[in-house]
Amino acid sequence: MFSNVRKVISQSPPPLEELKTFIEDFNFDLEAELSLIKNQESVMRLIRKNCSLINIVILEAVVEHFEIHNAQIYIYDYKREIKEFCRNLSVDLCLNEPFDVVRTSPPLKCETATYVLGWEATEHKLKDVTDIVSKSSGKFVKLINIKSTQSITITCSFPHSLTEALIIKLSDNLELLKKNDLMELTVGYCTIWKKQKIQEIQESLEEEVQEIKEQDKDHDKVNKPIAKSVFIARYGYYVIDSVDISFSEGEWLEIYRKDDSFYWKGRSLVSGDEGDIPSSCVYSMLESLQLLEFILSVEEVSLPILQKIRNDSSSNDKKASYFLKTINDDPIMISALRQDKEQHDKGVTGSVDWGFDRVSLTSPSPVQCNEVISSINNNFKEILLHSSSTNSTITILSSTKLSTLNLRTVRRFEIWLTPLTNDCIQYLCILITNNRTIQELDINGHSISDRGVSNICQALEHSSTLTSLDLYHNPLITSTSGQALSHLLLNNSSLVELNLTETSLSAESILLILQSLSNNKNIRILKLDERHEETCINTYPNYHLIQDRVDWWGY
Question: Where in the numbering of this chain does the SH3 domain appear (predicted)?
Fold first, then answer.
């Protein structure tokens, strides 16, 4: 069949660049290979390599798109024969046999999907396999092989660029798969679903009962280890604390215990190093979809972008696609939603601590936030917001009472362990722009990312009241923020102290900031990570002119 189709195409070939562009749009993962191709024959070899004996979707798409009518008859006949072949062939006769047209290197683990079904190979036909795969995952998934022990394992490959879409589609079709005796379903390193045996469930319940008994004796006991799961690093991370591990962007990390919201125990699947991993730097597609399910189920969502997704009348697939784009645009959104979900699931009751001239809110509810806003008066100089949900953070930051001159005495605003999404940052920028009395702003502990830093810096460039900005312990402040912080020092004349310790700023970014410090005579203290000290001292020729104002912090 392929030989006949190739002959027809060669008689009246489509323009090479148009053909390459179409294939790239069809499967973005082929972009690199297509860029090296210089002729029609090489394109056809690439198409053949990406077909299997029972899946010729890419060839069929080319023939249909370029309206190669004489080739369509060969496609039709082949599909009819394959359909009949699959209907009659028993699964046990094709076990461990490759389905590739051309023998190629095995796909990467992250490009494979695996179904484990409780089927007897002798009792099912190949068509049963192709039907369950196509109905649950679509036409872009290609069958690699089928293996059997006590059950059958179906391994498929797919374009890596379609990982998100595949997980969404499989999740939507999970009930169909369960009805077909699904035992386990994985995509890449992520387990989408696994059937537990009665014995395993019983053992798990017994373990939890025992733990409850133990907790009565030991209230300080840490959380039990969770089931091993694999996350992907959205950002590279350099060790800040001695118990941390370093990793690169895109690295696979195995998480085996979540002691708190912002630091998890795990190991790198690349280096094998074990230690603490900042949760704000990692994600998994499965968890992202669980967070989407959470915002669709809760009664109140304050963030406008999430309200839009929740109230959209389109399908769940489109909602999921929009949500994934949102968390990609706003890196700290995942951390914020994790905290929201955790507090919701645990039924956390927040607290408000009133001091003589300060008020401290820890995991407050929106109701508690409104009570604080109503009660606060000109006797208060400090507001501390700790471990706040997005709903409560929006309630505080959007308060017109705080952002106007009606409240003249607040001098310090401190935010801790409160991930500030784009919407939260916008309200904070309005607050610090309109309230001319705030002199100290602390945003600490996994609370801000590069995008937030950029917006804050723009709001502060011409501020004449803020004297101290503390961005301590924010691993999502990366080298991307170097330019914004440099411009801040060039344009702001009120800042006296700037703390950038325990961030992911690179040495190059620090050098850029030091150059701006030379032109800013008002900054008296610039706190930086000690790990950059030697590089900066040896690289920046005018360091001796600013050395008395730079404070290098170790861990």
Answer: 226-287
